[in-house]
Design brief:
single chain, 128 residues, mainly beta, seven-stranded mixed beta sheet, four-stranded antiparallel beta sheet, globular
Length: 128
């Protein structure tokens, strides 16, 4: 089991950058593939990005491709989401999630239902 705690959210202006962190408890962080999702009020949870357990592969949602970068540091049990060129439409609660390492991640990384564990989220608000 793993517990996830997000941090780094806040209020920024359009064009600014922000880095979110997701700290995981436990000694088996490297056993998990990790994902970031976001959700604005009244909308469905949207896939932002994902990274495999060793960091060799990353995946991104179309709306953030080229602006956001996901990375991880297994020694620190942390996954990051670097967000550049932020837009007002990026405003949402951002959630990290963990999925036990397996061979199917590339097929399911974008599905919120594929993840076993979730953090409580951190709010990002981008003003115009």
């Amino acid at each position: 089991q793993v517990q996830l705690v997000e941090s780094g959210g806040g209020l920024v202006q359009a064009g600014d950058s922000l880095r979110l962190s997701c700290a995981a408890s436990g000694r088996t962080f490297s056993s998990y593939n990790m994902g970031w999702f976001r959700q604005a009020p009244g909308t469905e949870r949207e896939f932002v990005g994902a990274i495999t357990w060793g960091g060799s592969s990353t995946y991104y949602g179309d709306s953030v491709k080229g602006r956001f970068t996901i990375s991880r540091d297994n020694a620190k049990n942390t996954v990051y989401l670097q967000m550049n060129s932020l837009k007002p439409e990026d405003t949402a609660g951002y959630y990290c999630a963990a999925r036990q390492r397996d061979g199917r991640f590339s097929y399911v990384a974008y599905k919120s239902t594929s993840y076993n564990y979730w953090g409580q989220g951190t709010q990002v608000t981008v003003s115009s």
